[in-house]
């Protein structure tokens, strides 16, 4: 077998494993684990969930930059949370906002909201680190300025902290379009949520979602101010300290997807740059003696991050092998796949129904964005301060 043939096989095979093979392995392993747990429960008849004899105090932290159109609705929903008010504080950290975000948030100070107005724009991680340093709660919970938390979401997050080895808990974010209906990317998102649920059963949750997660205040790690994917690195540092990271699909939050392709591309490109940082800061968790989390990290994250480059190398090698009939069939599949993605993207730009082509175009687009972002991260040209997606004004109460 020639070197070119190996490149073609690896370039195509590893991404297929990352997106198809790894989920199948997860499902089989998680099924065995769940059967074992069910058997133990049937034999012992113990409690399957903790009773939360004593609720901890919670500081809910929101980092905001120029969020005047949505911050009031978000704060109103935060104040409706089904959690004892004397145990819950809401902190808004403004990252150098130049609009009315701070003025609007301060209207809720009489309801117990604390507003920390940082004059200089530094980036989200610097804001949440400063807010965490001034928080009074035993548990730090994090959400975004455009996220709507379910009324019982905080209660469901903190119930896991009755277990001393649990250091962080991630909830489930549900995405919807501007009309309130499930987002077109919903199938892909549900796929990711399923992986997180299976990984949680195997004690291998990788990171969290910045829109809804919590950790013990005394475990908040020291983080660099230029960190981009804080919701991945912070929980991974908690795990590196010997604590568990748990996923709870019943702790829910909702958020509207960016309205345009360019917005989503920018967001994914930023994540790609953050992935480079995460790879450097969490590289020790890739070592095999860290346990199953190493296998999950390689399979779910690293191979995904490398997938655009692997696919490009595989395609180039495939072109060099067109003299062989079998590889001509593979090349035809390549052309069909990327042609479908281009057609799906065109239909989306024309605001026409794309059907399954939309998912193909979404997959190609996010991988292209991640590749660009990874390169930007390696070159050190991605800023920590985020470019906020344009928002439409929303009513204070309701969805």
Helix proportion of residues, in percent?
40-55%
- Which strands sit side by side, in order, in the main sheet? 3-2-1-4-7-6-8-5
Named CATH architecture of the domain at 58-266? Alpha-Beta Complex
Give Rg in angstroms.
22 Å
Task: Give a verbal description of the structure.
The protein is an alpha/beta fold. The chain has a domain at 58-266: Spore Coat Polysaccharide Biosynthesis Protein SpsA, Chain A, CATH 3.90.550. It has 11 helices and 8 strands. The chain has helices at 3-44, 71-78, 101-106, 124-134, 153-158, 186-201, 230-240, 261-281, 292-320, 325-349, 356-379, and strands at 58-64, 88-95, 113-118, 139-144, 148-149, 166-176, 213-216, 244-256. An 8-stranded mixed β-sheet has the order 3-2-1-4-7-6-8-5, with helices on both faces. Strand 1, helix 2 (71-78) and strand 2 (88-95) form a beta-alpha-beta unit. Helix 8 (261-281) crosses helix 11. It starts with a helix and ends in a 20-residue tail after the last helix.
Which tags fit this structure?
399 residues; alpha/beta; Spore Coat Polysaccharide Biosynthesis Protein SpsA, Chain A; 8-stranded mixed sheet; 11 helices; globular
Summarize this structure briefly.
The protein is of the alpha/beta class. 50% of the residues lie in helices and 14% in strands.
Outline the secondary-structure elements:
Elements: H1 3-44, E1 58-64, H2 71-78, E2 88-95, H3 101-106, E3 113-118, H4 124-134, E4 139-144, E5 148-149, H5 153-158, E6 166-176, H6 186-201, E7 213-216, H7 230-240, E8 244-256, H8 261-281, H9 292-320, H10 325-349, H11 356-379
Helix pairs in contact: 1-6, 1-9, 8-11, 9-11, 10-11
């Amino acid at each position: 077998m020639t070197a070119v043939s190996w490149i073609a096989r690896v370039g195509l095979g590893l991404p297929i494993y990352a997106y198809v093979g790894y989920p199948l392995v997860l499902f089989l392993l998680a099924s065995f684990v769940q059967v074992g747990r069910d058997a133990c429960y049937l034999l012992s008849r113990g409690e399957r969930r903790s009773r939360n004899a004593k609720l901890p105090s919670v500081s809910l932290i929101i980092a905001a930059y120029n969020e005047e159109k949505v911050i009031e609705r978000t704060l109103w929903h935060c104040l409706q949370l089904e959690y004892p008010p004397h145990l819950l504080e809401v902190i808004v950290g403004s990252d150098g906002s130049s609009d009315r975000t701070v003025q609007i948030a301060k209207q809720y100070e009489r309801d117990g909201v604390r507003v920390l107005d940082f004059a200089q724009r530094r980036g989200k991680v610097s804001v949440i680190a400063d807010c965490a340093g001034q928080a009074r709660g035993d548990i730090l919970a994090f959400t975004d300025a455009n996220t709507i938390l379910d009324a019982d979401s905080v209660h469901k997050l903190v119930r896991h902290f009755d277990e001393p080895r649990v250091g962080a808990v991630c909830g489930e974010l549900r995405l919807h379009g501007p009309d309130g209906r499930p987002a077109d990317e919903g199938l892909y998102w549900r796929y990711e949520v399923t992986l997180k649920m299976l990984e949680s059963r195997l004690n291998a949750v990788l990171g969290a979602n910045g829109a809804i997660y919590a950790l013990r205040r005394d475990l908040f790690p020291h983080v660099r101010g230029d960190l981009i994917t804080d919701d991945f690195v912070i929980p991974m540092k908690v795990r590196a300290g010997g604590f568990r990271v748990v996923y709870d699909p019943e702790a829910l939050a909702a958020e509207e997807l960016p309205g345009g392709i360019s917005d989503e591309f920018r967001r994914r490109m930023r994540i790609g740059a953050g992935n480079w940082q995460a790879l450097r800061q969490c590289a020790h968790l890739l070592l095999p003696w860290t346990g199953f989390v190493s296998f999950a990290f390689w399979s779910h994250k690293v191979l995904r991050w490398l997938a655009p480059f692997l696919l490009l190398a595989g395609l180039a090698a495939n072109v060099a092998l067109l003299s062989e009939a079998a590889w001509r069939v593979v090349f035809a599949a390549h052309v069909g796949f990327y042609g479908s993605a281009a057609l799906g993207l065109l239909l989306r730009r024309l605001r026409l129904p794309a059907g399954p082509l939309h998912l193909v175009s979404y997959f190609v687009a996010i991988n292209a964005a991640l590749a660009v972002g990874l390169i930007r991260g390696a070159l050190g040209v991605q800023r920590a301060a985020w470019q906020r997606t344009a928002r439409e004004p929303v009513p204070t109460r309701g969805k």
